[in-house]
Amino acid sequence: MHPAPPPAPPMLRASGLTMTYPGGSNALAGLTVDVPAGSVGLVGANGAGKTTLFRLMLGLMHPTAGVLEVAGRRVVEDPVAVRSRLGYMPEHDCLPLDQSASDVVSTFGELAGLPSRAARQRASDVLDLVGLDEARFRPVGGFSTGMRQRTKLAQALVADPQLVLLDEPTAGLDPVGREEMLELVGRLAGFGISAILATHLLDDVQRVCEHVVMIDRGHLVLAGPIDQLMQTTGVMRVEVGGRDDAVAALAQALALQGVPAAAADAHNLDVDTRELGEEAFDLVRDTVADLGLRLYALSTRHRSLDDLFLQEAYR
Amino acid sequence: MTTLPPALAGAVYDRGYRPYQGPRGGRREATLALWRLSVRRALGLRRSWRQKVFPWTLLGLATIPAVVNVGVAWAIRNNPVEMADFSFITYREYVGVSTVLLLFVALTAPDVVCPDRAQRVLPLLFSRPLTGVDYVVAKVAAISAIVFGFSFLPQVVLFVGQMLVSDGALDYFTDNAEVLWQVPVSVALLAVYYGAVGVALASLTDRRIVGGVAIFGFALITSAVAGIFQSAADGGTPLSLLNIMFLPLDVRDLVFLGHLSDESGLTGVEGGGAMAVGGYLVVLAAALGVLVYRYREVDL
After folding, report:
1. pLDDT by residue (tens digit) across A37-96?
2. For labelling alongside A216, which of A101, A156, B31, B205 has CA 20 to 30 A away?
3. pLDDT at residue number A313
4. Alpha-carbon distance B27 to B16, whole Å?
């Protein structure tokens, strides 16, 4: 029997990461988090520290304190080696406007260390992938916002990075463009490319990411797999009827059995299930039956990432 | 209905994403790629014909003295008296076709650095395996290489042409053998200096036109100020060091003649040659220092 392979190192590991700018403002304050490979949403309001974290990951500045590892490598020790396996898509306009998409993307392939011919071939492939095969020889200056975003994504992918950093990739896009960009980002994990998607649009993260890291004013708010975070809410919503005080009666009966519950509205009751877990379903069902009430609906309440963020950030 | 055989029917393939498993270079390859791209940009290669007109016209202008020299020498080759006296331009003087070179630097140095900052391409460049120093090396080396080429190639035309129209090609070669090292050395010193100073001045602004004017204006103003001091001193004065764009020509004279020429404002000054070399090194170091400072870090 073969021994189990050692677990893969996290794609990003921050330990006590602190970044204080010369003016004294704390962009990151002791951030400690492990981020696995895959699609990860980095969520936070403007000024939360997302861009600072990207800058530190790219080795463009040194942290004031703490340790940062990307793909198992300490960034401060060899930032160039780390950058050679990263792709980066900035939020702002950053493309040479007088060059064709093909030239831009192959240029950045060469700058990532690819031989010239390979860079041109890869540029052709990734422009095809992002849907710019027809427009590849047109100057970027004549592109729409959506096409420029695709070109930016293509240059980030051209050198086949291990990890791609996407800074607000849907910013400025119309609904169709946004859908298409999210669809592309969602496909990256299938190509074996991990992605960290920095955004303040929680919907985007919820749609395409497997994990989420929420930061606020340089502090970690929450991190983990999105499915787990959203399902382990500890709240069950029960819709009852049959008499006017059905909600109050049920709340009282549950309280007597040691289960906290609070009325959400005239027909709905939120039951705290953190202590009982799955047994809560049976208990609620039986109590409703004992009281002679009508049970219309019973569900684990799914919160959105917005709810989670607001709850954890402003707790 | 006609049915095409499978081989001719065509098919749609979803090629999907193909990981790259070929060779992957590091800093050296990235720097070399940036150098190559900058040379290409400065020469207008893979750009519209408008972008090609300027650099190639300047190359043509820089070559005219060599062509005239060789052409006249060829025309009078059968008149030994005239041939012996004829010299339209010397190899030493040819190193200093500086107005054309300065014009080239003033227009191409801003073109290779200003758009990177103005169009915010720098964050993307520095997200690659490149450092600020690599960027500076690539950009200065690109301009220097072209200035070297534009200075050196006409000298090759001059040397080969003169050799071919002379009575004895081998004699001409042996008589002028020293220029085979003097020309490349002095041209290289001039090219590195102009490249570093030009790119440093251009790096101070985002706008190409401002960068070009700054380079040309800097050369004119420093030359004029040094000229005023020279006139006031009625001869050589250490303040001629202020003629910053002339310093590589002083160094050129040291390479060719072993001493400063009469054209230099430092002629007659005690230790003028050493001062010229010192001034050259200080300005070069300052230009590189400015560049490293300007590209030490970028905002994302």
Report:
1. 999 999 988 888 898 999 999 998 889 999 999 988 999 998 999 998 899 999 888 999
2. A156
3. 66
4. 30
CB contact under 8 A, B119 and A94: yes
User: What pLDDT is recorded for position B161?
Assistant: 86
pLDDT in tens, B33-56: 999 999 999 998 887 888 888 888
Chain A CB within 8 Å of residue B27 CB: yes
Pairing assessment for the beta strands A65-70 and A12-20 based on DSSP bridges = antiparallel
- Inspect the interface and report whether the beta carbons of B19 and A191 lie closer than 8 Å: yes
- Of B149, B154, B248, the C-alpha closest to B197 is B248
Q: List chain B residues with CB under 8 Å of A125.
A: 15, 17-18
Whether chain A has a CB inside 8 Å of the CB on B115: the answer is yes
Residue of A nearest to B23 (CA): A114
CA atoms within 13 A on the CB side of A262: 3
For A282, how many CA atoms within 13 A lie in the half-sphere containing its CB?
4
- DSSP code at position A230: H
Non-local CB neighbours of A219 within 8 Å, separated by 6+ positions: A29, A30, A31
Q: Tokens 């940062």 map to which residue?
A: A68
Q: How many helices (H) and strands (E) does chain B have?
A: 13, 0
Q: Which of B1-5, B98-102, B161-165 has the lowest mean pLDDT?
A: B1-5
Q: Distance between CA atoms of B204 and B289, rounded to whole angstroms?
A: 12
Q: What phi-psi label fits residue B151: left (phi over 0), alpha (psi between -120 and 50 degrees) or beta?
A: alpha
Q: How far is CA B177 from the centre of its chain?
A: 24
Tell me the shortest Cα–Cα distance from A47 to chain B, in angstroms: 14
Q: Please state, in angstroms and rounded to a whole number, the distance separating the CA atoms of residues A138 and A97.
A: 10
For range A247-257, the mean pLDDT: 92
CA distances for B209 relative to A238, B99, B290, B291, angstroms: 70, 18, 20, 19
Confirm whether pTM is higher than 0.80. yes
Return the residue in A42, A53, A111 with the most chain B beta carbons within 10 A, the one to mutate for interface testing: A111
- Longest CA pairwise span in chain A (Å): 77
ipTM, 2 dp: 0.81
3-state secondary structure of A105: helix
Host H or E run for residue A270: strand A268-272
Q: What is the pLDDT of residues B250-270, one digit of tens each?
A: 999 999 998 888 888 888 888
